[in-house]
Each structure stands twice: as structure tokens, then as C-alpha cells.
Design a protein that fits this description.
The protein is α+β, with helices and mostly antiparallel strands. The chain is globular, with a radius of gyration of 26 Å.
Length: 400
């Protein structure tokens, strides 16, 4: 299947108007410079269209006119448009690929039953349109977006209320996010200026240990099932604890949580779900709390880097946190905190004191100890608010 006619049929099948404009036509009709149009187009994730190619329809004209009017009104600037375009482009690219894969599998299964030839792309797109699936998918995207928009606004509202309460009580402070010895404070953030200023956030990473070896050990279909089961469990557990998935990064998930106890529970519960489902994986988790900034839905900052590095030294059945965060778990009797005897030299961060956290109500035999932990409460460590914690038993050494 090739040629302009097929592309026109595909465009019609997905609900786009026929291409009738060249690049220069769009620029003259919209009145926006070529350089601006090109930056928007690339930010969405598309390659530059050759000058003489008829590739744009009236849908593209209307969208460009609307963007131009928005910028002309001064409500947003070009940087805001580009940032949102990048988020939309990357997100919807993945959504579209997932939808096509799902429809292809369904169509192939149907053809296999009656012995006919496998479907081609045009067959799938036509079936999508004829069965009114396109309308349903469009409605579902708008619905899910509105629900997530409501949730995002709700999170901002809670941050604003918490910040106001801290200001009233005069206790505005933040945890140290470097994970290095010592405590630090941060100024109270503007809760509605999340894209530009820091705010204290709990960040966690959970990854599949030995994923590279696994890719060589099992076939592609089995690998896809493992990753799918991991992602499904992560979404479920994080949502149950009122957290948010920031992104999946290959064999890992990055998330933010309401507070440190919630972030730790997410990691422990996800490990338990994987074991209960008998997934052939071991999950490692690191959690940190400290200043971050949010840009385009993603999260950046020292706490993110620290949580990622902590995941690299975590062991099965535990979550690793910076030791100075341990007292934030004092009112969590379901969690058991233990100090790690040695310092760990974390790449890009430095020599760091750590603690491990596990469920307090699980027998030791169900939670295998590891070389990263400090053995037992009998090392003379003091109890922190009812949470068992082991103290240092020797001089600090370099860790890996």
C-alpha cells in the first residue's frame, strides 16, 4: 500500500480533512512566520514538511489561527506554547501507537479465526471509523484528560492550603534533599508557581533489577507481558496511595507521593504485588523528599536525582531513604526503619547516610536481609518515635 491516495484515505478514516495546502499556503493564510510554525510543528513531534508537498488541511489552518490568536492576546507566550506542544506531542504519540497496536492485534485475531489474509493498515483504519471506535477513543481521551485536570487542580489546591497553614504557624521548612549529612531548609514555595519555583516533594523510583539480562533470557512476547504487568501494578498501587505516575522509563517507574510514608508504602506494596503475582522480577525502590520543580508534567531537582541513585543500592523487600528523612516515619508503626552502617558514595551526590525501610509486621524470614542493611535493632540504635532504628556499629566506610 503506497501513494497519496492511501494517505488521503487514512486521513479521512481518522477524521482529518483532506490535505490541500502547501507549507507556504499555511503561512500566508495564517499570517505567522515560517520559523514559528516550524518550531511548533517540531515540538509536537513531526518532521519538517518539504516546501512543495501538499500536506496540510483546514484542520491545521484552524489550529494555527487559534494559536496565533492566543499568543496575540498575551495570555501565554511562545515558550508556554512550545512546552505544552512537547508534552502533548510525546503523550499522544504513545497513545496513538498503543491504540494502533491494540486494533492490529484485534483485527489479526479476527482474521485468524476465519482463515483470511491478515489486515493491512487501511483495513484497520477503515474498521476503526466504521465501528465508531474513533469517536469512542476521542471521547475517552477528552474524558480522561478532564479527570486528570481536575486531579491536578486538586493537588495544587492542597499545596496552597498546606503552604498557607505553614505560613500561619511559622513552621515553613523543607527536608534536606541532598541525602548528605546535615539538615537544610527551603523557602516556602509559591504553590501556584510550580513551573518556576521549587517545592518540597516526595519522589520515588521502582525498577526491575537485572532487566538487561532478562531481555536476553526470555522471548519478546513474554518480556512484553512482564513489562505490561509491572506497569499495570504500578499504576494501581500508586493511585491507591493517592500518588501520581510521572513517567515510565523502560524498566522503571517514577512517581510522586503525598508524603514520605506514602512514597515508601508505594514501593513496598509494589514489591509485594509483584511477588504475589509471581512475576519473574525483583523490584528495587528508592524514595527521597526535597525541593523539586515541575515542568511540562515532569519533575526535576535534587530529590529526583537522589531517589534515582537510592534505587541503585536498594535490595529486595526494602525501600532505601536518606537517613535524615527517617524521623518523618516516626508516626508510621507499620514501617520499620533501620540505619545502614556504612556510608554510600552515590554518583553525583557524594557520601550519603542511608536507612532501609520494610514492613514492620512481616517476619524476618519473609523479608530477606541484604548486605545493604545494618543487621538488627540489637546494635544499640535508639527507637525513633516507636519505629525501630539501628544505630551505627562501626566507623564509616565507602560504599558502592
Amino acid at each position: 500500500m503506497s501513494g497519496p491516495r492511501d494517505l488521503a484515505d487514512l486521513a479521512a478514516a481518522v477524521g482529518l480533512e483532506p490535505a490541500r495546502h502547501r507549507r507556504a499556503d499555511v503561512e500566508s493564510l495564517v499570517g505567522i512566520p515560517h520559523t514559528d510554525m516550524l518550531r511548533w510543528w517540531r515540538a509536537i513531534g513531526f518532521a519538517e514538511v518539504p516546501e512543495e508537498e501538499v500536506a496540510f488541511g483546514d484542520d491545521d489552518i484552524r489550529m494555527a489561527v487559534a494559536l496565533g490568536a492566543l499568543l496575540g492576546g498575551g495570555a501565554v507566550d511562545d515558550r508556554d506554547v512550545l512546552r505544552l506542544a512537547r508534552v502533548l506531542g510525546s503523550s499522544f504519540s504513545r497513545i496513538a501507537e498503543a491504540q494502533v497496536a491494540l486494533l492490529t492485534d484485534a483485527a489479526r485475531a479476527g482474521r485468524a479465526d476465519d482463515g483470511s489474509l491478515p489486515p493491512d493498515v487501511l483495513d484497520i483504519a477503515t474498521a476503526l471509523h466504521d465501528a465508531e471506535l474513533l469517536d469512542l477513543l476521542e471521547q475517552s481521551i477528552v474524558y480522561v484528560w478532564r479527570r486528570h485536570l481536575l486531579a491536578a487542580l486538586g493537588r495544587r489546591l492542597r499545596v496552597e492550603e498546606d503552604a498557607a497553614a505553614e505560613i500561619r504557624s511559622g513552621t515553613v521548612a523543607g527536608s534536606s534533599s541532598e541525602g548528605v549529612e546535615g539538615d537544610g531548609e527551603v523557602d516556602a514555595p509559591d504553590p501556584l508557581d510550580d513551573d518556576h519555583g521549587p517545592s518540597a516533594t516526595t519522589v520515588g523510583f521502582v525498577d526491575i533489577a537485572g532487566f538487561a539480562k532478562m531481555t536476553r533470557r526470555i522471548d519478546v512476547d513474554d518480556l512484553a507481558e512482564v513489562v505490561d504487568a509491572f506497569e499495570a501494578a504500578a499504576l494501581e498501587v500508586i493511585a491507591e496511595h493517592h500518588g501520581r505516575v510521572v513517567k515510565f522509563i523502560g524498566d522503571a517507574v517514577m512517581y510522586v507521593a503525598r508524603d514520605l510514608p506514602s512514597g515508601v508504602r508505594i514501593g513496598l506494596e509494589l514489591q509485594g504485588r509483584a511477588a504475589a503475582a509471581e512475576l519473574p522480577v525483583e523490584l528495587h525502590c528508592g524514595v527521597a523528599h526535597g525541593p523539586t520543580i515541575t515542568m511540562g508534567g515532569d519533575v526535576f531537582g535534587p530529590a529526583v536525582n537522589l531517589a534515582s541513585r537510592l534505587t541503585g543500592v536498594a535490595r529486595r523487600g526494602t525501600v532505601v531513604i536518606p537517613r535524615e528523612c527517617a524521623r518523618e516515619l516516626a508516626d508510621s508503626p507499620d514501617l520499620q526503619v533501620r540505619s545502614v552502617r556504612r556510608l554510600h558514595d552515590l554518583k553525583g551526590i557524594g557520601r550519603t547516610r542511608l536507612s532501609t525501610v520494610r514492613w514492620a509486621d512481616r517476619p524476618e524470614t519473609e523479608q530477606p536481609a541484604s548486605s545493604a542493611e545494618i543487621d538488627s535493632v540489637g546494635n544499640g540504635g535508639e527507637a525513633i518515635g516507636g519505629v525501630a532504628a539501628a544505630g551505627d556499629a562501626g566507623g564509616p566506610t565507602d560504599g558502592g
